Amino acid sequence: MSWIDHWEPEKPEFWENKGKRIARKNLVFSILAENLGFSVWVLMSIVVVSLGSVGFAFSVGQQFWLLIVPNLVGAALRVPYTFAVPRFGGRLWTTISAGLLLIPCAMLVYAVSTPGTPYWFFLLTSAAMGLGGGNFSSSMANISFFYPEGKKGLALGLNAAGGNLGVAITQLVVPIVITIGTGIHLAYAALIWMPFIVLATACAWFFMDSLTQAKPDGQSYKLALSNPHTWVMSFLYIGTFGSFIGFSFAFPSLIKISFVDYKGWVALAFLGALIGSVARPLGGWLADRIGGAKVTLGTFVGLGVGTVGVILSVDTRNFALFFGSFIALFVLAGVGNGSTYRMIPAIFRTQSDCDKSAKRQAAAVVGIAGAIGAAGGVLVNLVFKFSLEGSSKSLTPALTAFLVFYGLCVGTTWWFYLRRNVFAARPSLAYAGV
Quick check: helix, strand or coil at residue 395? Predict the structure, then answer.
């Protein structure tokens, strides 16, 4: 049921007569499910800011662990979620993964509605929210099979951006919803998503499709794991997506902790994730036209400049510079997310003589890079935690570490994909880099 055996998107006649309509339909419902996954995944980033207002007095370190745990679980789930698409089919797995989001929502309702809920249960609830983080890899792997090579960049960019927007939606809507009526009602933060989760689950089951050609062959995954480009791209994705999701989790808390007089601006923290999400398809679009590696290198240079801006803002206590620099970091991370993901199918197309094997290897790398990139978000929040708990109790050590890392990413991108000697040895890589 809903399995498609014949799928040839690279043939113009097939694409125009049949493929485009089916691909777009699956993309729409994939975005819906993935968007809710992100919304639930980052839910604790807003809830944690208000826990003290409802009687849960956790330390700064404990609060950051509530941000780190969902990030960590989401990162760990991205690899098995990628393999779930070939195993169960895109339709069934999207249905299952969307439905699972009801679990963390129900747990959060119980946690914040029960006086004296222990800290360990909040940690368990945060871990359950990590289920939403795995959705990204399965969704991206699934959609990558539906689109022809020349249209993958924009399609994957839209799919990812639609999912990433869940971060912004949560950080915009939840602060408003929890203040409806008198006082703070954190249970509303979870209850608001439940009807939409049920809707997304039903839509996935009744309207999506599964592709037979998405079935794995073990050899393709082994080749992907043994290919050095898998790990290079995973490293670069730490710098782009790791920055985006790590900053998304931390930004509301950083405003409250670092600029107490401006804590009312927490309500505008959603702007970072919103603009970064919208910038993601732009990165894919630019990569389609001028080359993924060029766009990626430019974004890392920009991320370094933005980080310097945040360092200066912390040292001078300039909130306008702090907020503006972080918005720039979100935009650049979003563009880099799109360009790095566009590089993956292009690189593996040059590495394999078999188009079908190349697509399967690329789909595997999407999961691996997605998992490692999300783990980068864990590292971002760990660095923030240690920096704020250290002797300086400042963000400067953390930001300095990020600056050094972005420098390494610039060098890595240039070395592997933009050096002339690389093109001389492997001219096919010019497709990905130029």
Answer: coil
Cα radius of gyration (the chain): 21
Q: Closest Cα to residue 366, out of 92, 156, 87? A: 156
The two three-digit tokens of residue 411, written as one number: 């060098």
Q: Could you say which of 162, 196, 216 is where a domain stops? A: 216
Which amino acid would we find at residue 376? Answer: G
Provide the 3-class DSSP secondary structure of residue 3. strand
d(CA 333, CA 247) in angstroms, rounded, equals 10
Residue 109 has a CB neighbour count (10 Å cut-off) of 18
Q: Are the beta carbons of 102 and 194 closer than 8 angstroms?
A: yes
Q: Is 234 found in the same domain as 128?
A: no
Closest CA to 155 of 284, 34, 294, 38: 284
Cβ neighbors of 425 (< 8 A, separation 6 or more) are none
pTM, to two decimals: 0.84
Domain that holds residue 80: 1-216
Q: 264 and 189 in one domain?
A: no
Q: Tens digits of per-residue pLDDT, 319-362? A: 999 999 999 999 999 999 889 878 887 787 665 556 666 767 77
Are 43 and 59 contacting, i.e. CB atoms less than 8 angstroms apart? no
Count CB neighbours of 406 within 10 A. 22
Residues 260 and 130 in one domain: no
User: What does the alpha-carbon distance between residue 300 and residue 416 come to, in Å, rounded to a whole number?
Assistant: 15
Q: Specify whether the CB–CB gap between 254 and 395 falls below 8 A.
A: yes
Question: How do 210-211 and 3-4 pair as beta strands?
Answer: parallel
Q: Which of 259, 161, 217 is nearest to 359 (CA)?
A: 217
pLDDT per residue as tens digits for the range 66-99: 999 999 999 999 888 878 888 899 999 999 999 9
Record the tokens describing residue 204, joined without a space: 């996935």
CB contact set of 338 (below 8 Å; sequence gap of 6+): 153, 156, 157, 160, 161, 279, 280, 281, 282, 283, 284, 285, 286, 287, 295
